What does this fold into?
Amino acid sequence: MSPADRVAAAAQAAVGVPFRLQGRDPESGLDCVGVVALSLTAGGHEGPVPAGYGLRCGDAARYRSCWAGLADADGSRPGDVLLCLAGPRQLHLAVRTPAGVVHADAGLRRVVERPGALPWPVLMAWRIGES
It folds into this structure.
């Protein structure tokens, strides 16, 4: 299994985990950053994880700097990490899967897999295992 496939599989395995802002442990809950961090770790990527943010942050460069070493991507392949604009100054992360994307849904209070196209514009995307 490729690193990108492991990233997508780890994200799918987190579906159903409770939502918790700043959550990093599937036992107690994850937010979108936690889902991405968990997934990237499963793919073999180690690096800093953003912390100290709120639901409205709007600082895309902060996320990019946290995952240095990942390749820029178009967001189309399973395992790609997507940084989306979910609302005014509201950045949101998701992991591309073969069926759609996995993300932590604050409204539904859990990690979900959303099939099909994203409802938000993608600002940046990254991929593990390529340079």
Notes: The chain is about 20% helix and 30% strand.
